[in-house]
From TrEMBL:
<dbReference type="InterPro" id="IPR025705">
    <property type="entry name" value="Beta_hexosaminidase_sua/sub"/>
</dbReference>
<protein>
    <recommendedName>
        <fullName>beta-N-acetylhexosaminidase</fullName>
        <ecNumber>3.2.1.52</ecNumber>
    </recommendedName>
</protein>
<dbReference type="InterPro" id="IPR017853">
    <property type="entry name" value="GH"/>
</dbReference>
<dbReference type="InterPro" id="IPR015882">
    <property type="entry name" value="HEX_bac_N"/>
</dbReference>
<dbReference type="Pfam" id="PF00728">
    <property type="entry name" value="Glyco_hydro_20"/>
</dbReference>
<dbReference type="InterPro" id="IPR029018">
    <property type="entry name" value="Hex-like_dom2"/>
</dbReference>
<feature type="domain" description="Glycoside hydrolase family 20 catalytic">
    <location>
        <begin position="274"/>
        <end position="621"/>
    </location>
</feature>
<keyword id="KW-0326">Glycosidase</keyword>
<dbReference type="Pfam" id="PF02838">
    <property type="entry name" value="Glyco_hydro_20b"/>
</dbReference>
<feature type="domain" description="Beta-hexosaminidase bacterial type N-terminal">
    <location>
        <begin position="144"/>
        <end position="271"/>
    </location>
</feature>
<dbReference type="InterPro" id="IPR015883">
    <property type="entry name" value="Glyco_hydro_20_cat"/>
</dbReference>
<comment type="similarity">
    <text>Belongs to the glycosyl hydrolase 20 family.</text>
</comment>
<keyword id="KW-0378">Hydrolase</keyword>
Amino acid sequence: MSTPKFRLEATWVDHGEEPAKMKLALTNLSGADLKNFRLSYTGLMRVKADVKEENATFVKRFANFHQFDPLDGVVVADGETWEFTVQNLTSNAQHRMDGPKSGYLTLEDGTHVDVDTGDLQIEGRPSEFAGNLVPEGKLTDPIAVVPWPNHVAVGDFDTPPVVLCAAEGTSADEKRAINTVAALAKRLKHELPDRLRLTNVPGGRKLTLVNNAALASEAYELSFAKDEVVLTYGDKAGLNYGLITLSHMMDGAKAEPTKFKFPTSGEIKDAPRYEWRGSHLDVSRQFYPTDAVERFIDILAWNKLNKFHWHLSDDEGWRVEIKGYPNLTKDGAVMGEGHAMPAQLGAGHESTGGFYTQDEIKELIVHGQALNVEIMPELDIPGHCNAVLAAYPELRDPEEPEDNYRSIQGYPNNAINPGIPATYKFIETVMEEISELFPSKYIHVGGDEVDENSWLQSPAAQKVMNEERLNGTMQLQAHFLGKVQKTIRKKGKIVGGWDEVSHGGGIDKEGGTLLFAWQKPEVGLELAEQGYDVVMTPGQAYYLDMAQSPAWQESGAFWAGYASPEKTYTYEAAGEFPDHLKGRLKGVQACIWSEHLISRQVFNHQVFPRLNAIAEAGWTEKDNKDWPRFAAQCKLLPRL
């Protein structure tokens, strides 16, 4: 990659006496004068409609995409800088990545060239670092296992064996399970030697596998001796988890032999706390290629997380091939100059995006099944549909005024219309293909963040509201989602959705409707009281795009506050649930929203070790959790 010829730097100016403003400085390093140009940039700190600009002319904004022109006659000589300021923004900056995430210039001849962007700095005061958010920690036992087992009574620790070798008499299916986990460990931590082996080797220790149908499916037990390890398991999942636990222990003892050992006596008895132990991944705001998604599934399995909530559509992109609607991936999966969707969230002028073919998805499903990871697809409707509408504008009422409402992310008229017959044909076709493609019993329909003014000036929507005696946007959404639920049930599937699915009267609670409580912890209890099954994923603790500290040099969002690794670890989803409602609490889930995750480095900083902390919250009983012990172990775990 060549060195950029232009650099855009931003400074946050907030003296408290007047509304804060952002100062932008474009430096020309091209070797020639710059004139008659236009600057485009993407940034989550958006200008409002009444933006005030100095030394520039505001051209337009579309969600996070901004365009400004210099004043007439401005020439930026080589090595010189053009500065301008903008005031009246949607929020005040809190962190270094709140400024422009990407930019490009449109030159006098119509060509486009990328602009490098720097961190947002603060005028007039130093920007602080958060420091080390994970302490050295303290072990309760000198073994490395995350999530921590629910019964540990081991002793007589020693250096680990060279490898654990399958005992004579191991069945073919058991050997396949050993091979699966051995390959998983090698993919995730190739720098460490083999943990498991199918044949004997001098220096190896015998690994005996015993099936006990009396154990629960995901349960396993380990018994340690100097010359043998016995793994007893309930079913395929329990065998998998027991082998992963042994692999963790081998890794720790070999990677840090002064800190971790391997037991030669004692036992571990283990089973998960919750049935739903998940992680969501938003692949719309940033597209993750198939190899990255495959590794992400590996990481979930390594942490004994058993649900992958795949967020496949949003305003910024539609990511799954639908054969009946090919424009979804032709026009709805790509952004940039010359496309229906302009650049967003770190993208430049060149075409950016991508999608997963149905064949690629089938391969990832098989990969997950081998590791006991179920993939639940999410197609976010009726809101968050800018990409859908870019591909199929006929799903919008042509008589509804343009820019009648804007979503919280700034997208105009971004909800498909419940008053148009074409909408239901679209839903029927998409859900048919998704139902056939994904074996998961759940299809997540989104249902979140529909603006309260959506459809209120749509004649087609108003007709439905009058006929059905519906009052307002939320009741119309509930009516629409009820029809979607019937379509999904015909496919033998169960509806999942964000907590707003309960608004406006909600949808049918029978048959296992599963809602994900994200807005605040109290919502989960409210949903359970209404009769919904619930997965807890509150933004205040389990949204991994949230910054980990208020320090300026941290990255991430801040609308739900700050979630340090310790806060995420110690949060208790069941804390407010009375005993008679605890059966409604199906589990916990991390959410990885990708607006801020513009590089693999930022992803890893934001996600780990908080994802590992949520894995332990989903598996380990409250009384067995221990933050210092987790802190001492989590640095061993793999990252994306």
